[in-house]
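Repro:
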Amino acid sequence: MHSPRILPVLLLGSVLAACGGSDDDDAPAVTTMACGDFVGKTIAGATVTAATIVPAAASVPEYCSVAATLPTKLKFELRMPTTGWNGKLVYGGADSVNGSAGGFDGFMPVPNVNALKMGYANVASDSGHRSTAPLSDIDATWALDDAEAVANYANLSVPKVAAAAREFVRMRYGSAVTKAYYEGCSNGGREALMVAQRNPDVFDGVIARAPAYNLTGLLTSFQRGAQALAAPGGMFTAGKVATLAGAVRTACDALDGRADGVVGNLTACSFDPAALRCTGADSDACLTDAQVAVVHSWTSDFSLAGTSIAAKRYPLTGNEDDPATWGPWFLGGGGIPSAQYLFMDGGVKYFFAKDPAQDPLTYDLSANVGAAAAFAALADANDALLTGFKARGGKLILWHGTTDPAISVNGTTDYYNRVVTAAGGQAAADGFVRYYKAPGVAHCLAGPGADTADLLSALDTWAGGGAAPATLTALKLDPTNGTTLFSRPLCVHPKYPRYNGRGDVNAAASYTCT
């Protein structure tokens, strides 16, 4: 759901398939197809607009990039390794590893470098529309009078593109895809859960990172936060944010065995913001009654009366003052509204009210529950009964950063708990779902925590009949050169990484999942 221009972001078959394939429709079988031969072809209903070889660069291998369009304007790109294809396909959803697009989408995610390096063919799409706005993934103007674009964005683009991608890959390499996976974060995480729920036969496994599965609940809950901040005395200064974050760290940082700026044992953290209420003159060292109300709004569940539309509370994490959290996401600044406000503004104007002139702060959601519910029926991926996905042997990995200011980690925890219940208990759920929480990680990445982990390899091993994933390793990388600054265990929920009291504080081996 993030905008790479708002958040500080850390972005970053088996033989040469260069011989020409036959264009003879009567040929008994397709062998392999040269990259350039895709140009002008219509394959599986998709018309190819470009096909080029992208030379190897740094650690990224050479690959064939094919751009195509499905009727009427659903654009996608395939990135197929020139050599060393592993026989598998990974769909890089919005905000996928190394990706960029999210939120309301509208542009193409960049290649999934991790997948390409491991030999996967990689596909991504723009979700069915293109935006020309400066902040493309926060632009919802395209939805006003375009039911096709809304339906593709909501739930249709992924299965459509995945079906076409399989045929493209078969023609390129001369053999069918053996395994297909989906990996995405934020809106990409929503897409992951959506396809597992509504199209369970499309992928052998999906990775849903920080999933915006209750999209309507998020958009409507953002209005409550914006209204609280807009109340007289509600807005925070940077000094007040620092006061709040510092108080939470003082109360909770050491609960994981070490005070390091990350509250690892978030479940045990209990802090009442009323303790910071101003008793004398207002200053950056205290909170006004209106500001205490803002924090209570942040830390309480939301529900839209008369509907099932809801969103879970955000935890206080002690990282509210991190550059990737409250400032860009909740408060805004420098004349730029917060990302939450901008998403809420787009949702109200173009999905609910269908009126660009509507003031999003005064829009009465309780009087327009039908509009919100209609969008929820299209775009929300709330169903926890994954019977079809489980029955076909599908595997699901959930992941969420604990200090995410866009989508609350508590929402993903709630969804996981509902999956466990719907599956018939923990033992049954353990056969097809794993959930990881990443302490100190903001929305999809960034924040002070270890935000990089190879979930794809864990999923591939599991879906291929190997061991189910247990404790993994998460890294914090230097944004300038990619070297590892520190590592931490990535623990299976409900465990958290606790410092052992000795050993290198920057090494995962000095921590135990507890």
